From TrEMBL:
It holds the Pfam family DUF7708. This is NACHT domain protein. PANTHER family: AMELOGENIN, NACHT DOMAIN-CONTAINING PROTEIN. The keyword Repeat applies. Residues 916-926, 938-952 have a biased composition (Basic and acidic residues). It comes from the Eukaryota. Keywords: Repeat. Residues 290-445 form the NACHT domain. Residues 773-792, 894-952 are annotated as: Disordered.
Length: 952
């Protein structure tokens, strides 16, 4: 009996690696089935599928795939020598049976897969001739192994495609993304035909080897280029979704950075939280403890603990590919506590779990769903849809850890809705085994409402029960802070042992409140002590209740204040508590200057005023101000008749300041005003509040005008009358003409302004003129930068001239009567004021960019654009479907292969409901398309098949 020919080690290694790669991608059950499948089984299954589809009146031309089966038979006989004694051979045909069976329920997907399999047959035809001649040749075996590798890569791509969750929902989008990979595999097979001929003819074996190496490198380079292009497009689409939702992700980034910085500084005082049994169970990648509520009293460091948990999970998620989603609610950023903005924040983070989700929502925003701004109901449904459709690899269970801090700071009427929504996300664990699992951690104070709503839904972890750990952590915190005062304390005879005793005393009396410990240490730092005993007993003499402590601090601040200074202190507190976004120092000074109602005020208040409010407020790294803790705001509101802040009073004062600033702008930023004097005022920072005023004046004025206690004799009314008259006077060209569309809703919202004719008309313009559609039209015609220029004689014109003035001052090296230090300080603080987004409602319309290029790039994301999906196409985005189609027909017509005819009626009848309603105009394979969303109810824009929310 002749010995079996030796097989090429390189070929065996290539085949084994390709086999193991596909084996890892499939489920164990499918792998077992593949091993027992013959080529005849696959052919028989194909005929059965054809009969079933014929019975459904969706008969397909299955003859297209028969040459592929024939070619596989010849190839199998050729490669048999390499597969003897291994399970490798059946895997070149076995996956086809499963893929065709699953895809047969979806006509479009079935046609596409059949077409690509039939293309492979062209590369297999020559094995009928070569199967006996060269199969024992080592170089020939290496080529056979490459074919095996390519075929299994094709199976793997198709298998993962049809096995991922919601693959039919994402078919159009995902196949557009995978098409480049399929085409690349087919191209490799074509290239290997030439290599096969060279090898079979035994001509220049070394050249054949060199070609093979080049082809392998070319394939690798192509795959790298495809991956890079996919990443770029996904990133671009994500940025456009962010712009569509009008969310500024940098806000949460700033909050998280601040929290993480504190957590990092005192990580030793936070380590204990990750060792609490229920928190440990929640952090693990399993279904244990899916919903946990960590509750604690004010100032107990819940946000810092959340930051520490996030830092811990960030290291873990990088290793196991799970997803981490977080949102911090804080009064410092009013938008962070708004229900619909919380939904947008969570949605954007979940989208980052998978590129297919980004493509789906990107396509969704270009449909009629985006005709209006998304409502809370439509956002809820979109979030549920995206959350339940997170794709994942077969056999893998993806866990998404969601952390929500400060639930008690959210709008009280929306807290129940948010709990219901989080509960629905957690409920997805009862969904099919391959769906994503959500694990939710909520951190908040223990309120009666939250206790009622969460006690049955969530596992409760109370910081009160962890008093020993908290005391230990606060002791470490206090010792660290007191250590910074060591040089001062040493001079009074206080040694290290005394510092430890002080830290212990502070921790014991703090009763789990970091904020109390912080206030004690600041008290020790800022007061005069004559001897050692006064310092050692300071903690014992101070009130243990936060409210009493705040009262003592406030009394000390007010001790030397007259009535005017007290009112100014209230004003500063009011701006911190109720501004629409945190004000930077230079904006704050300008706001205080315009607060009394003088449009031509000559100077801004000095910056040292803010230090006089310490320690109740603090300046952050971005030069904004905030209370040291949310409990300070609660205390200032709760002093009864001696209350230091009132929402109604704050809105009145803020309305006065914004209207005064706008009035001043109409005078100063007018062509008749002296350029030198204008520049001097801007350099002094007098108009730094202008960007904020232009964006938020309506938000401050409307609550005052809608109040039942409004006073027509007040200075605010007089200022509004002046502004209305000024607008009418300046409207020499008739620019105050709002569009007529959607005026019913606007009239209802602005009814209280009707007595101020010019202001009322301009308010409607503010709501209409700078819509996304308007910016898109301008961008297409002239480019975003030139097209957004405001019309003359309006508040927008004043803003435009203010920003132009700032831009011109940024370019100066000197200015008369201004020192170099002051000029550089102005440039550093005002640079972003000059380059703000010109789309009304965008978060970047008041927080700008470092230069005009960055702003222009950002504004482009507000404009819907269509990209040609042909790999490597250099053309810029197109403005409409028609122009894109014309481009494809002209430049890529060979890529478009007409679909086989079919009965439209039969297809519509048999097509699954989840694929109906797709945009027929986006059917071309070169046009990036995602599945059409569920039908939209035009009353509230909620998908009709949305599940009703849980009862509150």
């Amino acid at each position: 009996m002749p010995l079996r020919s030796a097989a090429s080690p390189a070929a065996l290694r290539t085949i084994r690696e390709a086999f193991e790669d596909l084996e890892r991608a499939v489920t164990p059950a499918d792998a077992k089935e593949f091993g027992n499948t013959t080529l005849q089984n696959v052919q028989k299954a194909a005929l059965e599928i054809e009969n079933r589809m014929g019975a459904r009146k969706s008969l397909r031309n299955m003859r297209r795939i028969m040459p592929f089966f024939t070619g596989l038979g010849h190839y199998a006989k050729t490669i048999e020598v390499l597969c003897n004694g291994t399970p490798y051979l059946p895997w070149i045909w076995a996956p086809i049976k499963l893929i065709l069976t699953v895809a047969s329920d979806f006509v479009d997907a079935f046609d596409t897969i059949i077409k690509h399999y039939s293309r492979i047959s062209e590369s297999l035809s020559r094995f009928e001739i070569l199967k006996d001649a060269f199969r024992n040749n080592t170089e020939f075996q290496n080529v056979l192994a490459v074919y095996y590798c390519d075929i299994l890569k094709f199976h793997k791509a198709a298998y993962r495609f049809i096995r991922q969750r919601s693959w039919a929902l994402f078919f159009d989008t995902s196949f557009g993304r995978f098409k480049s990979r399929f085409d690349d595999i087919i191209a490799n097979l074509k290239s290997h035909e030439h290599l096969l001929d060279l090898t079979a003819n035994a001509i220049n074996i070394s050249e054949a080897r060199e070609i093979r190496i080049r082809l392998e490198q070319h394939r690798k380079d192509q795959l790298d280029a495809i991956a890079k292009e996919e990443k770029r497009k996904t990133s671009q689409q994500y940025e456009e979704i962010v712009a569509w939702l009008k969310v500024d992700p940098s806000e949460q980034v700033l909050i998280l950075d601040s929290v993480m910085e504190e957590a990092f500084k005192f990580s030793s005082g936070c380590d204990w939280v990750t060792k609490v049994d229920r928190i440990m169970a929640w952090m693990q990648r399993n279904d244990n403890e899916p919903f946990v509520w960590l509750q604690g009293k004010p100032g107990s460091g819940k946000s810092v603990l959340a930051g520490h948990i996030i830092g811990f999970l960030q290291g873990a998620t990088r290793a196991d590919h799970s997803v981490l989603v977080s949102h911090f609610c804080t009064y410092s950023y009013a938008s962070s506590t708004k229900y619909d903005l919380i939904l947008r924040s969570l949605l954007l983070q979940i989208l980052q779990a998978n590129a297919d989700l980004v493509a789906y929502v990107f396509r969704l925003k270009e449909t009629d769903f985006a005709m209006r701004a998304p409502t809370s109901k439509s956002l809820e449904q979109l979030l549920r849809t995206v959350a339940s459709a997170v794709p994942q690899t077969p056999g893998e269970v993806k866990h998404i850890h969601l952390i929500l801090d400060g639930l008690d700071e959210c709008e009280s009427e929306k807290q129940g809705q948010l709990i219901n929504l989080l509960g629905q996300l957690v409920a997805t664990r009862s969904a099919p085994p391959n769906s994503a699992r959500y694990k939710v951690l909520v951190l908040s104070r223990n309120t009666s409402f939250l206790t009622k709503r969460l006690r049955k839904r969530a596992t409760v972890v109370s910081l009160t029960d962890e008093a020993q750990q908290l005391e230990k952590a606060i002791r470490s915190y206090a010792y660290s802070k007191l250590g910074a005062l060591r040089s001062r304390l040493t001079g009074m005879g206080i040694g290290d042992a005394d510092i430890r005793d002080m830290a212990t005393a502070i921790a014991q009396k703090a009763d789990g409140m970091y904020i109390w410990a912080r206030l004690v240490i600041e008290y020790i730092s800022n007061n005069m002590f004559y001897n050692k005993d006064e310092i050692l007993h300071a903690a014992q003499e101070l009130p243990s209740e936060l409210g009493a402590f705040y009262e003592r601090i406030l009394t000390q601040i007010l001790g030397n204040f007259d009535t005017r200074s007290t009112e100014r202190l209230k004003s500063i507190f009011g701006w911190i508590a109720y501004a629409k976004r945190p004000l930077r120092m230079f904006e704050f000074q300008s706001a205080l200057a315009f607060g009394p109602g003088d449009p031509m005020v000559a100077n801004v208040p000095p910056s040292y005023l803010f230090s006089m409010c310490a320690p109740l407020i603090e300046e952050r790294r971005d030069s904004t101000f905030a209370f040291i803790h949310v409990s300070v705001k609660d205390y200032l509101k709760s002093r009864g008749e001696r209350s230091m802040i009132s929402e109604e009073t704050a809105y009145y004062e803020h309305g006065t300041a914004t209207i005064t600033c706008l009035l001043s702008g109409l005078t100063v930023f007018d062509s008749a005003y002296s350029t030198h004097d204008r520049n001097r005022r801007v350099l002094r920072g007098l108009h730094a509040f202008h960007v904020y005023s232009n964006e938020f004046w309506l938000d401050h004025v409307l609550p005052v005008m809608a109040s039942t206690q409004k006073d027509p004799a007040s200075s605010l009314y007089a200022l509004m009358s002046q502004l209305a008259s000024k607008l009418l006077e300046l409207d020499s060209r008739g620019t105050l003409r709002p569009q007529t569309r959607d005026t019913a809703t606007l009239d209802s919202d602005l009814e209280c302004l009707k007595t101020f004719e010019g202001l009322y008309t301009y308010a409607k313009i503010v709501k209409q003129a700078r819509s996304a559609k308007s910016l898109e039209e301008k961008s297409r015609n002239q480019g975003a930068a030139e097209g957004s220029e405001a019309p003359p004689d309006t508040l927008s014109a004043a803003l435009s001239l203010y920003q132009s003035t700032v831009q011109s001052l940024l370019a100066l090296r000197t200015f008369p009567s201004t020192s170099m230090e002051d000029l550089e300080r102005f440039k550093k603080s005002h640079r972003t004021s000059a380059f703000t987004c010109r789309l009304n409602g965008c978060a970047r319309s008041t927080i700008g960019f470092e230069n005009d290029q960055l702003r222009t790039e950002h504004e482009k994301t507000h404009v819907s654009r269509l990209y040609c999906q042909h790999p490597g196409c250099p053309y810029p985005p197109f403005s409409s479907d028609r122009t894109l189609r014309n481009h494809i027909a002209k430049c890529h017509d060979d890529a478009h292969q007409e679909k086989p005819r079919r009965s439209i009626r039969a297809h519509a009848t048999q097509q699954p409901s989840r694929l109906r309603g797709q945009d027929l105009e986006s059917d071309h394979p070169m046009i990036h398309a995602a599945p059409h969303p569920a039908p939209i109810n035009r009353v509230d824009e909620t998908p009709l098949k949305a599940e009703p929310p849980d009862p509150m």
